[in-house]
Amino acid sequence: MGFKEKVFSAVKMIPKGETMTYGKVAEIAGNSMAARAVGNILNKNKNLIIVPCHRVVRSDGRVGGYAGGTKKKIKLLKSEGLEIKSGKIILT
DNA sequence: GCTCTGACGATTT
DNA sequence: GAAATCGCCAGAG
Q1: Per-residue pLDDT tens over the stretch A26-52
Q2: B12 C1' to A61 CA distance, Å
Q3: CA distance A61 to A29
Q4: In Å, how far are A4, A9, A46, A90 from A82, measured between CA atoms?
């Protein structure tokens, strides 16, 4: 199984209403410092429906990017009950 | 098979 | 504390 396959598996296992950092996904995928590659893979595949990639956020609390637009990503996250302030996720 | 790209991350200024 | 810089990796051209 390639690295990207592992990434998809990790993202798919994120429960609704929860978020995971790119670094964490990368770690599960096999490389804890491949966070950059993780985002790159999701972007190129842009499987917004197959995988809930909108639950993947940055380590600094920012939402990060999204193939369908960061705005849409924030919208989706808020829809799942997450609190976002100025593009930053509030973990309670 | 080499080079560029990019939804990141930690450090330094 | 915010902004810029360097470093990292895997995919695609």
Answers
A1: 999 999 999 999 999 999 988 897 899
A2: 21
A3: 21
A4: 26, 22, 22, 7
- pTM for this predicted structure: 0.94
Query: Which CATH architecture group holds A3-90?
Result: Orthogonal Bundle (1.10)
User: Which spans in A1-92 are helix H?
Assistant: 3-12, 22-29, 35-45, 70-79
Report residue A38 CA to chain centroid gap: 9
Closest CA to A22 of A53, A67, A68: A53
* First-to-final CA distance of chain A: 35
The helix/strand/coil state of A26 is helix
Domain boundaries, chain A: 3-90
Q: Which nucleotides of C are covered by protein (CB under 7 A)?
A: 7-12
